[in-house]
Amino acid sequence: MNSVNEKVSYLKGLVHGLNINENTNEGKAIVEIVKILDAISDELNETKKSYVDLKEYIEQIDSDLTNVEDEIYGLSDELLDEGSEYDEENFEEVKCPSCDESVYIDKSLFGSSEHIECPNCRYGIVLNSSSSVKTE
């Protein structure tokens, strides 16, 4: 008897087996309590099912978001950890003026009129030359 549903079913059978007189005040109360517990058990089961569905949906959204981030920001954390297809010489570390986190920017973007958004705090960074940064 692990689940609430099983325990309520057991209690219903026990009350039925005791032949409780529903005409007495105590009998009415016990029968109503069992009905309420049964309704609560059903609601709990529905909530658990909804939770599982929502959890799966959120995991899928998280996976999709990771794919989008990889597309937008280029290299994923996995590639950075493995070191494959990542050439440090092509990127320059820049500290975000807002959150002071390191942002690695492709060197080919310096000197252009590109605006880079800090992936940590969304602060706008304008790249001027090879290593200078102007903030917005």
In short, what is this structure?
The protein is α+β, with helices and mostly antiparallel strands.
Structure, explained:
With 136 residues, this protein is α+β, with helices and mostly antiparallel strands. 51% of the residues lie in helices and 15% in strands. The protein has 3 helices and 5 strands. The strands form 2 sheets. Strands 3-4-5 form a 3-stranded antiparallel beta sheet, with no helix packed on it. A two-stranded antiparallel sheet has the order 1-2. Strand 1 and strand 2 form a beta hairpin. The radius of gyration is 30 Å and the shape is rod-shaped.
Q: Tell me about the largest β-sheet.
A: 3 strands, antiparallel
What is the number of beta strands? 5
N- to C-terminal separation?
A: 63 Å
Question: Strands of the largest sheet, in order across it?
Answer: 3-4-5
Number of helices: 3
Name some characteristics of this structure.
three-stranded antiparallel beta sheet; 136 residues; disordered C terminus; 2 domains; 15% strand; 3 helices; alpha+beta; two-stranded antiparallel sheet
Task: Summarize the topology.
Blueprint: H1 4-17, H2 25-73, H3 77-82, E1 91-95, E2 102-106, E3 115-117, E4 124-127, E5 133-135
Antiparallel strand pairs: 1-2, 3-4, 4-5
Helix pairs in contact: 1-2
